[in-house]
Amino acid sequence: MSKRLLNQVVWLTGASSGIGEALAYELATKGTKLILSARRKEELERVKGNCVSASQANIRVLPLDLSEPSTLELSVEAAIQVFGHVDILINNGGISQRSLANETILDVDRRIMEVDYFGTIALTKFILPHFLRRKSGQIVVVSSVMGKIGTPYRSGYAAAKHALHGFFDSLRAELWKECRNIRITLICPGWIRTNITLNALIGSGEKLNQMDSTTKKGLSPERFARKMICAIVKKKEEIIIGGSKEVFAVNLKRFLPRVFSKIIRRANVR
After folding, report:
1. SS3 1
2. Contact 134, 179 (CB under 8 A)
3. Structural domain tally of the chain?
4. Does the residue 20 lie in any domain?
5. Is residue 253 part of a domain?
6. d(CA 250, CA 266)
7. Residue at 77 is within a domain
8. What does the pLDDT read at residue 1?
């Protein structure tokens, strides 16, 4: 399976920490040509330096800011020029939220949507002509279990992730008629042991700076990365990667929505 990624050019956003960092380390062992993107260049250089030494010559750093839409077309052009083409775009960059809807200023909702939704679809739209010219490519989107369900304290985050599913399900259907070699893979993480809650926005727009208990008990990012890479190689359309509780919640919402609604009102998911 690893051989299928050999010499593939993979562009990974959100590569400076958490899931993205774990993905970078794992992909570097597969013989890929990696482009690492995030806002902080120094952190990207750190991640690059921590990748296996044999991979260093095939790793490039390309800083970008998903909250600055006017810059993203140039970012795509720069990414294509790094190795001459891109085979796989992994849209992993994003921010989370921990606040009640009626205590959250609208600017926070807009910021989350700008980064998690608009930033992702902007990169996708700008790289699509490149994939269409080459008649191949794969767009991977790190969504969330929150893209399938909604829980308290995550209204803006869940909204952005739900929006991603609507957009990419539609795009997948459109591309099937135009070019079946361009594939879309939606990844839905459950609780993963990263700093996502430390950096999550509260109602005022400041960072939470706390680790919640569910995240602390979650799947390790290293294990998650291995499972996610398997899904990418197999070109899965959509997969949930997490613990049994998260998978159960998605299935309960799908088949018994009223029961799910009653349970989630009382659940301690903060």
Report:
1. coil
2. no
3. 1
4. yes
5. no
6. 17
7. yes
8. 59
Pick the closest to residue 146 from 155, 158, 154, 159 (CA basis).
Answer: 158
246 touches 192 (CB < 8 A): no
Q: Are 73 and 79 in contact (CB under 8 A)?
A: no
Which stretches of the chain drop beneath a pLDDT of 70?
A: 1-2, 268-270
**191 touches 218 (CB < 8 A):** yes
The pLDDT assigned to 147 comes to 98
Tell if the pTM clears 0.85, that is, is over it: yes
Q: Which residues pair with 36 in a beta bridge?
A: 12, 61
Q: Which CATH number belongs to the domain containing residue 86 in this structure?
A: 3.40.50.720
- Residue 153 Rama label (left phi>0; alpha psi -120 to 50; beta): left
Beta strands in 164-204 (DSSP E): 182-189
Report if residue 264 sits inside a domain: no
Domain carrying residue 200: 2-245
Phi, psi of 82 (to 5 degrees): -55, -55
For residue range 59-96, list pLDDT tens digits in order.
Answer: 999 999 999 999 999 999 999 999 999 999 999 999 99
Catalytic residue flag (residue 157): yes
